[in-house]
Amino acid sequence: MTKTQQHSVDIEKWLKLIRADSVGPTTFGKLISRFDSVDQALGASVSELTKIDGVDFKTAEQIAATRNKFDTTAELELAEKLDVWIIHLEDKRYPPVLKQIYDPPPILYIKGSLTRQDSLCISIVGSRRCSLYGQEQSSRLAHFLSSAGFTICSGMARGIDTAAHQGALSSNGRTIAVQGCGLANIYPPENKKLFELIAESGACISELPLHYEPLAENFPPRNRIIAGLSLGTIVIEAGLRSGALITARAQL
Prior knowledge:
The protein is an alpha/beta fold. The chain is about 40% helix and about 15% strand. It has helices spanning about 10-20, 25-35, 40-45, 45-50, 55-65, 70-80, 130-145, 160-170, 190-200, 220-230, 245-250, and strands at about 85-90, 105-110, 120-125, 150-155, 175-180, 205, 230-235.
């Protein structure tokens, strides 16, 4: 892990707060807005927590009871083993464009590197059950855009996403994969080699704890990160209720 890939200062405190029960990105943002810092939010009383919009007494009790339970030592040890670095929203290395979305992830787990070039990022997303033509077009567009200096962002899912990452790699360009699970769980498993190649020449990213499973409910929130990192989104062969269209709507 290089000097530029060290964990953020005070990352343990950020991990404890975001992993408390009933605290997601939106509630986390409200906590920081109310208490000005992670330290003060971690020390707030139940009574003080109930003053936050949307936090009732029961929720405040849950937050207070669980905000120091996450095993940050084990998480950081595993991160070191996997060569993953963890940054928070106030770190200057956090992607500036991602800060601008409605509910930016307070924490990012990163395997690989982020560079200035990634500010010129285009996402390519689409169906897992795509046609051969769709795969070819995804790969071709990614190769062309990557050759022109754009970073290609996608979700490393089967089908269109996989083809987009492969197209970027074929031009020796940069590509970013945003996972809907922890980075210790590569999904889909057959993309393990692709995951490694992306990390070598770009980055694999997640907002979820390292061992978090690829549950269905993780993927719609993941799509806002893909959109948030990108200047624009190209959708290829997506169904009306697909995650690809969720990404496209998040881009608007």
